[in-house]
Amino acid sequence: MNDQRELISALAGRERARTRMRMATAGLGAAALATAGVVAYHLPAPVHKTATTTTVTPSAQPTLTIPANYSGDDGGGSSVAAGGGTAHSTSGGS
What we know:
By secondary structure, the protein is mainly alpha-helical. It has one helix at 2-42; strands at 64-67, 79-82. It has 1 helix and 2 strands. The chain has a two-stranded antiparallel ribbon. It is rod-shaped.
């Protein structure tokens, strides 16, 4: 009979341990869920912006000056600049 009491006591102890484990697991799960909610609440909101493009041009672009007319130049000195997006016009004279 003593063995039967020990068996019943062991089974009851096992059941108490299972109950404690279930309660601890449920408590940890709830704590983890609450922590995730707090973290999600403090995360920055997504920023919706339209895409913009920026064009960067180098400050020192080489320029090439090509005379407007090669033959019969009357000394007017008119020329066109190519490259760099700038145009130079010089006037000859006195």
